[in-house]
Structure formats: C-alpha cells, structure tokens
C-alpha cells in the first residue's frame, strides 16, 4: 500500500462545500473526507497507536476490526478530539486540522460519535429525544418549551423514518428495546446532519432481527454520510462491509474486502493467536 496515495495537495483550488460550523469549506475534492496520517499515541511509553494511516472516502462505509487492544477506541478518540496524538496529523477534508479543535467543536462541526452504550433520555419520548438533538442550545427546558420550525419538524419525521421509529414516536425512550434505543441514538446524531459517523460496536447485545435492521440502517446511511463502524461481530461486518481495515498493535495490518482480509495470512495469524 502506498501511504501517500491520498496525500493532500495544498495547491489544489477546489470548489468545496461550505461548512457553516467551521467557517471553513470542507474540501473533499480528492475523495477522502478523513485523513489520519502517521498518528502515534503513547500511554506511558506504550504505543496504543503506532504510525497509523487511515483514509476514509466521502460517503464510504468502512469497517474497522482488530483484536482486543489493537487501538480501535484510541483511533476514534483521536478523530473525535478526545485524545491528542504525540505525532501525526488528522484532517477533516483537506484543510480542516482536527488536532486544533476541541472535542465539542469536532462534534458540532460534523463528526458524530455513537458510543457502545445507548445514552438516550429515558423519561422523554422518542420524539422529544430527537427534538433535544435538534438544538444548538442544549439547555433542556429551553429546548423542550420552544417552538420547532416546520423544517425542524420535517427533519424529525424524516429521521424517525430513517431509523425505523416512526411508530414509536410517542413512546418513552425508557420503554424501547435495546436495539431501538441504539437506533434512536443514531437518529439523535443524524439530527445534527453529520458528514462522518463513528459507530462503536453497534450490534453488541442486539437480537438477530435487530442486528439485521441495524445492517440495513447503516448501509442506508452510507453515501449520505461517511460511516465508520468498529465491530467485533464478524458475521455482521461481513453483512455490511465493502472496505475493511484490520488494526493490530496500533497500525493497519491489512485493508481490503472482507474476503481479502480474512484470507490474509497476517490477519489469520493475529486472530488465531488471540
Ligand atoms: N488511557 C490509557 N492509559 C493507558 N493505556 C491505555 C489507555 N487507553 C488505552 N490504552 C491501551 O492502549 C491499547 C489500545 O487500546 P484501545 O482501547 O484503543 O484498543 P481497542 O482496539 O479499542 O480494544 P477493544 O477491542 O478491547 O476495545 C490497549 O493495550 C490499552 O490497554
């Protein structure tokens, strides 16, 4: 693999989309929306990420797999600004340096993260949860007592349809199944119209049917968003994956289709050795 294949070309005069959150245009004219280059993160001398290179294209659905401790969570922490690396660069589009931004700025600027455990407001209805997520202003009562615009209501209806919860809009979120809570939380992220969605182990604890519906949901989001899924469930990964990246000891061990990576002797060795 040529690590410089997607290297950013600063001389390019692209015609970018305007991203109001950054006051910068988001330039994806070279294909990738996310550039992680030469990233190293050390914890007391131990390299959780070691010269990691990852490029994710606009609209792509990318699955990240790897044994325990491979660096998957640390990689997401770096992209979302929770952890700042010792070395390397992380760009959103060609020109937005994510290492200069806070976790909050990154989230508001178009990179949404779904943690493994759902964190919906259980005492509120599904609709109210989405209503809260529309708000720039997170103050609870202010948000719930204000009038939504027609556009915001339409957007909530659209998201309810996308995540398959239109029939549960008035139900308390606390009464939803585990899978439905996960979809609601994905819906809450969608209310912010993220360009990139990072999803951590979305099907852990789901029933078979919920897993299938989650596969449909995530594949339907690709194209409109870039979706990065970290998951241990190989059958699930196989069902959704186009491109798979295998992390091991903080670096990319292999990249390709599921068949390619599963037949890669290096990958087989790492998984059998687990
Ligand atoms: N804050 C920290 N302090 C010290 N070591 C850490 C810290 N965070 C992560 N590590 C170590 O870095 C390595 C990578 O951890 P990380 O959580 O990124 O792996 P992972 O691929 O997400 O693993 P899993 O699949 O088990 O969630 C592990 O060995 C972990 O113990």
Automatic annotation (TrEMBL):
InterPro entries: AAA+_ATPase, ABC_AA/LPS_Transport, ABC_transporter-like_ATP-bd, ABC_transptr_urea_ATP-bd_UrtD, BCA_ABC_TP_C, P-loop_NTPase
GO molecular function: ATP binding
This protein's UniProt keywords: ATP-binding, Nucleotide-binding, Transport
PROSITE patterns the record matches: ABC_TRANSPORTER_2
Sequence segments annotated as region (Disordered): 1-23
Domain ABC transporter: 34-274
UniProt key word Cell cycle: no
Domain of life: Bacteria
PANTHER family: CONSERVED COMPONENT OF ABC TRANSPORTER FOR NATURAL AMINO ACIDS-RELATED, HIGH-AFFINITY BRANCHED-CHAIN AMINO ACID TRANSPORT ATP-BINDING PROTEIN
Protein name as annotated: Urea ABC transporter ATP-binding protein UrtD
Species this chain originates from: Gilvimarinus algae
């Amino acid at each position: 693999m040529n690590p410089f294949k997607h290297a950013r070309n600063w001389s390019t005069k692209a015609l970018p989309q305007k991203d109001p959150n950054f006051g910068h245009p988001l330039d994806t004219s070279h294909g990738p929306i996310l550039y992680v280059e030469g990233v190293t993160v050390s914890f007391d001398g131990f390299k959780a990420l070691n010269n990691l290179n990852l490029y994710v294209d606009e609209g792509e659905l990318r699955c990240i797999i790897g044994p325990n401790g491979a660096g998957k969570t640390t990689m997401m922490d770096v992209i979302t600004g929770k952890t700042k690396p010792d070395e390397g660069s992380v760009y959103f589009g060609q020109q937005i340096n994510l290492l200069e931004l806070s976790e909050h700025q990154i989230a508001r600027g178009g990179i949404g993260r779904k943690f493994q455990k759902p964190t919906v407001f259980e005492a509120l209805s599904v609709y109210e949860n989405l209503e809260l997520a529309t708000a720039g202003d997170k103050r609870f009562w202010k948000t719930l007592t204000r009038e939504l615009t027609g556009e915001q209501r339409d957007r909530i209806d659209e998201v309810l349809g996308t995540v398959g919860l239109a029939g549960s809009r008035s139900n308390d979120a606390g009464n939803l199944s585990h899978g439905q809570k996960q979809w609601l939380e994905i819906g809450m992220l969608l209310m912010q119209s993220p360009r990139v969605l990072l999803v951590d182990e979305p099907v852990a604890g789901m029933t078979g049917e919920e897993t299938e519906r989650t596969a449909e949901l995530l594949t339907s989001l690709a194209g409109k968003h870039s979706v990065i899924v970290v998951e241990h469930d190989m059958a699930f990964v196989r069902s959704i994956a186009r491109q798979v990246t295998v992390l091991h000891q903080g670096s990319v061990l292999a990249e390709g289709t599921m068949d390619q990576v599963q037949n890669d002797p290096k990958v087989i060795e790492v998984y059998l050795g687990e």
